[in-house]
From TrEMBL:
A biological process from GO: phosphorelay signal transduction system
UniProt keyword Hydrolase, yes or no: no
A single MF term (Gene Ontology): ATP binding
Lineage: Bacteria, Pseudomonadati, Pseudomonadota, Alphaproteobacteria, Hyphomicrobiales
Sigma-54 factor interaction domain residues: 183-412
Residues with the 4-aspartylphosphate modification: D89
InterPro entries linked to this entry: AAA+_ATPase, AAA_lid_NorR, CheY-like_superfamily, Homeodomain-like_sf, HTH_Fis, P-loop_NTPase, Sig_transdc_resp-reg_receiver, Sigma_54_int
SUPFAM superfamilies: CheY-like (SSF52172), Homeodomain-like (SSF46689), P-loop containing nucleoside triphosphate hydrolases (SSF52540)
Entry-linked PANTHER family: TRANSCRIPTIONAL REGULATORY PROTEIN, TUNGSTATE-RESPONSIVE TWO COMPONENT SIGMA54-DEPENDENT SIGNAL TRANSDUCTION SYSTEM RESPONSE REGULATOR FIS FAMILY
CDD domains listed in its UniProt record: AAA, REC
Keywords: Activator, ATP-binding, DNA-binding, Nucleotide-binding, Phosphoprotein, Transcription, Transcription regulation, Two-component regulatory system
The species this protein was found in: Bradyrhizobium lablabi
Name of this protein: Fis family transcriptional regulator
Response regulatory domain: residues covered: 40-154
Length: 478
C-alpha cells in the first residue's frame, strides 16, 4: 500500500503538487515512467477537479486516458475498451469503489486497480485488498505518487505475463534451443520462404504456415514477428496438441474465480497475455471442434470471453497458425470447420522439407555442432567427407529437428553413429553403397537399439512422430 508518511506531503493539494513538480522539472517523463507510454488508463471519480488533475498528470505520459464520473459509466467503458490500470475513488454516490471493484472481478475484470480515498482506515484497506485492489493511495497526493503507483502496476503485470509466457514456451518447445529467429540456408527453397516472410511481416494479415513436423514453422513464425511492427511486443507460442481438450479453453481465454473446480483465482489467458503482439497457434488442426467455433469468433470480433465471464474483452493480436496436416482434407472429413479454414487461410507459407533444401543440411549441421558443443561443454565432433555424404543422401523424415537431435546425440557419444557416418555395417557391407531407403532404415533401427526398443524415445531423438516409426516398421516387416 502506498500511504503518505509525511503530513507535509499529504497536505499538498493536487494542483499545488502538479505545479511543484513542474517547477522542479520532475515532469515524470523520465525513464522511470517509460512503462506508461503504452498504457491505457481509466479514471473513475465523482469529483471533476480530481478527474481533471489525473487527466493532466497522466494524459501526456500515457497512450490513452479515459474518465468516468460514476461506476455505471465506468462499467460501460469497460465493456467497450480494454484498460491496463483503473484508478478508482472509493467514496462515490450510488456505489462505492470497493463494492464495484468486487462486482467487476466476478464478471471478468483482470486489470490492476488503484484505490484512491481520503479515508485511510484499516477496514477500508482490507476490503480493498479483498476486492482485488493492488495499491491504495491516500488523498491528497502528489502527481509523482500516482505516477509511481501506475508504473508499479504496469511493471508487475509485465513481469507476471513475461514469466508465464516464458514458462509456457519452455514447456511447449524445450527442444528448440537455436535458430529461433533465423531461417538458415541459401538454397532456393529457403530464400523463397525468407522473401515471402519479408513481404508479409509488416502486414496485419493472418498467416498459415504449413509443412511437415520439424521443418521450422515456429522459426518462421518468430521471424515474421521479429520483422513486424509488433517486434517489441509479446510473441506467445501455443501448441494446441499439447494442451488437454478439457483445459484448452481456460489456457487460451483465461477464467474468472470459481469458473470451474480448482479455479481459486481469476487469470488472464494466453490471448490476453499476447495483447499487442503475436499469438502463434501451432498444430491448429488438433484444436477441438468446440474451440474452433470460439476461435472463429475471436478472429471476426477481436474479443475474447474468459471462462465464466459475462464480459468480452477486446484484444489486439496478430495471428500466425501452423499445421502439418492437410486442413482441406480435414474439412472434407468433418474434423475442421470450413468457415474457420477459409478465415485463417488468407496467406499460406509452405516450409520445405530438409531433403529439398540442397546443401542447407551441411550448413545447419555445422551450426548445430558449434552451438550445441558450447552448450553441452563437449568438444565438437569433426564432420568428415563420409558424414557429409551421409547427411546429403539421408531422407531426413524428421527434418531440421531430427538433424539437431542427431548432432546432440553425436556430441554425447563422441562420434557419429557408425551406420550414419558411412562406416562398415555389422555384416561387412559398405554403407556408402546403400540406397537412400536402406540408409534411412538402418538409422532408425540403430536408434531403436540405442533406446532398448522404445519407439517413443526413438521418435523423440529422431525428431519424428511415433506414428512415423510405426508406419516404417510395419512396411519393413512386410
Amino acid at each position: 500500500m502506498n500511504l503518505p508518511t509525511s503530513k507535509a506531503s499529504a497536505a499538498i493539494s493536487p494542483a499545488a503538487a502538479s505545479e511543484t513538480a513542474a517547477k522542479s522539472g520532475k515532469s515524470a517523463g523520465g525513464p522511470e515512467f517509460s512503462a506508461l507510454a503504452q498504457a491505457s488508463i481509466l479514471i473513475v471519480d465523482d469529483e471533476p477537479g480530481m478527474r481533471n488533475f489525473l487527466v493532466r498528470t497522466l494524459g501526456p505520459r500515457c497512450k490513452h486516458v479515459e474518465e468516468a464520473a460514476d461506476t455505471d459509466e465506468a462499467s460501460r467503458k469497460l465493456d467497450k475498451s480494454r484498460f491496463d490500470v483503473v484508478i478508482l475513488d472509493n467514496i462515490m454516490p450510488g456505489k462505492n469503489g470497493v463494492d464495484w471493484l468486487a462486482e467487476q472481478r466476478a464478471v471478468g475484470f483482470f486489470a490492476d486497480a488503484i484505490l484512491i480515498t481520503a479515508y485511510a482506515d484499516l477496514d477500508t484497506a482490507i476490503q480493498a485488498l479483498r476486492a482485488g485492489a493492488v495499491d491504495f493511495v491516500l488523498k491528497p497526493f502528489r502527481s509523482n505518487q500516482i505516477l509511481n503507483a501506475v508504473a508499479r502496476c504496469l511493471d508487475r503485470v509485465r513481469l507476471q505475463r513475461e514469466n508465464y509466457v516464458l514458462r509456457y514456451a519452455l514447456r511447449a518447445s524445450s527442444d528448440r534451443t537455436f535458430l529461433r529467429d533465423n531461417l538458415i540456408g541459401e538454397s532456393p527453397a529457403a530464400r523463397s520462404v525468407r522473401e515471402t516472410i519479408a513481404r508479409v511481416a509488416r502486414l496485419p494479415t493472418s498467416i498459415l504456415l504449413t509443412g511437415e513436423s520439424g521443418t521450422g514453422k515456429e522459426v518462421a513464425a518468430r521471424s515474421i514477428h521479429s520483422l513486424s511492427d509488433r517486434a517489441d511486443k509479446p510473441f506467445v507460442p501455443v501448441n494446441c496438441a499439447a494442451i488437454p481438450p478439457e483445459m484448452i479453453e481456460g489456457e487460451l481465454f483465461g477464467h474468472i474465480k470459481g469458473a470451474f473446480t480448482g479455479a481459486d483465482s481469476g487469470r488472464e489467458g494466453l490471448f490476453l497475455y499476447a495483447h499487442g503482439g503475436t499469438l502463434f497457434l501451432d498444430e491448429i488442426g488438433e484444436l477441438p471442434l468446440p474451440m474452433q467455433s470460439k476461435l472463429l469468433r475471436v478472429l471476426e470480433d477481436r474479443r475474447v470471453r474468459p471462462v465464466g465471464s459475462e464480459r468480452e474483452v477486446p484484444v489486439d493480436l496478430r495471428f500466425i497458425f501452423a499445421t502439418n496436416a492437410d486442413l482441406q482434407k480435414e474439412v472434407e472429413k468433418g474434423r475442421f470447420r470450413a468457415d474457420l479454414y477459409y478465415r485463417l487461410n488468407v496467406m499460406q507459407i509452405h516450409l520445405p522439407l530438409l531433403k529439398d533444401r540442397d546443401d542447407d543440411v551441411q550448413e545447419l549441421a555445422a551450426i548445430f555442432m558449434s552451438k550445441l558443443s558450447a552448450q553441452l561443454g563437449m568438444p565438437p565432433v569433426p564432420i568428415d567427407s563420409s558424414v557429409r555424404a551421409a547427411l546429403a543422401s539421408y531422407d531426413w523424415p524428421g527434418n531440421v529437428r531430427e538433424l539437431r537431435n542427431l548432432i546432440e546425440r553425436t556430441l554425447i557419444l563422441g562420434a557419429f553413429p557408425d551406420d550414419f557416418a558411412g562406416a562398415p555395417r555389422n555384416d561387412g557391407q559398405a554403407a556408402s553403397a546403400d540406397s537412400l531407403a536402406d540408409l534411412e532404415r538402418r538409422h532408425i533401427i540403430s536408434v531403436l537399439k540405442e533406446t532398448g526398443g522404445s519407439r517413443e524415445e526413438a521418435a523423440r531423438r529422431l525428431g519424428i512422430s511415433r506414428k512415423t516409426i510405426d508406419r516404417k516398421l510395419a512396411l519393413w516387416n512386410g
